[in-house]
Amino acid sequence: QVQLQESGPGLVKPSQTLSLTCTVSGGSISSGGYYWSWIRQHPGKGLEWIGYIYYSGSTYYNPSLKSRVTISVDTSKNQFSLKLSSVTAADTAVYYCARASGDCGGDCDIAFDIWGQGTMVTVSS
Amino acid sequence: QSVLTQPPSVSAAPGQKVTISCSGSSSNIGNNYVSWYQQLPGTAPKLLIYDNNKRPSGIPDRFSGSKSGTSATLGITGLQTGDEADYYCGTWDSSLSAEVFGGGTKLTVL
Question: pLDDT-based confidence at A55, cuts 50/70/90?
Fold first, then answer.
């Protein structure tokens, strides 16, 4: 079955760029019909959608983070990545990658059906 | 402040039934499908319900979802201690052009 695994630094300095990669195993990221997603959860708080990407490269970002976020896909490695620039302590969170099933025609009718285990990222000097 | 409103906590005894509400607006729940997620302590969220009321393979029929107008409800019957978790609703918000989640509801099985 499809599994997702996040990787990347657990500590990032303020003003730098947070970079995470999600490796997909058990299935092809190019198979279509899925949106490859990043979601974060601040300590003790709820879920916040960051954005997702289709294998073709189409991206959808949370407007509140859009100016700082880049999500990219590498189909040859079956991976997708998150870059969040100019980080502050407010970006300290557990970051999850997830597969979203559904369709983004006009509005997005999707559900996050497979999640990675999550990786804690702390922003601190 | 979350776009979708959930009660912070609910509780019930083992074997009983509980419902968790998720309130939104016409720009989100009113015109888009709702999903529900279960997050056991220290783990990643897990999809319980999608398209308002559909269960993924492997999710027991003790879990159900419904939607009416701008509100959605997750129902859990035959409560077990293993159901103690945080539950989140989620949907697309057409005005924000963003996926939005409720603030989460902590279920305690007394």
Answer: confident
DSSP labels, A15-50? TS-EEEEEEEESS-TTSSSEEEEEEEE-TTS-EEEE
User: B48: buried, middle or exposed (CB in 10 Å: 19+, 13-18, 0-12)?
Assistant: buried
Question: For testing the chain A interface, which of B99, B100, B101, B105 should be mutated: the one with the most A CBs within 10 Å?
Answer: B99
CB contact under 8 A, A109 and B51: yes
Name which of A100, A111, A94 is nearest A29 in CA terms: A100
A111 touches chain B (CB under 8 A): yes
The separation between the first and the last C-alpha atoms of chain B, rounded to the nearest angstrom, is 28
Name which of A58, A59, A110 to mutate to probe chain B: the one with the most chain B Cβ atoms within 10 A of its Cβ.
A110
Q: How near does any CA of chain B get to the CA of A94, in Å?
A: 10
Please report which confidence band the pLDDT of residue B1 belongs to, taking 50, 70 and 90 as the band edges: confident
Q: What per-residue confidence (pLDDT) applies to A42? A: 97
Of A97, A124, A120, A122, whose CA–CA distance to A25 is shortest?
A97
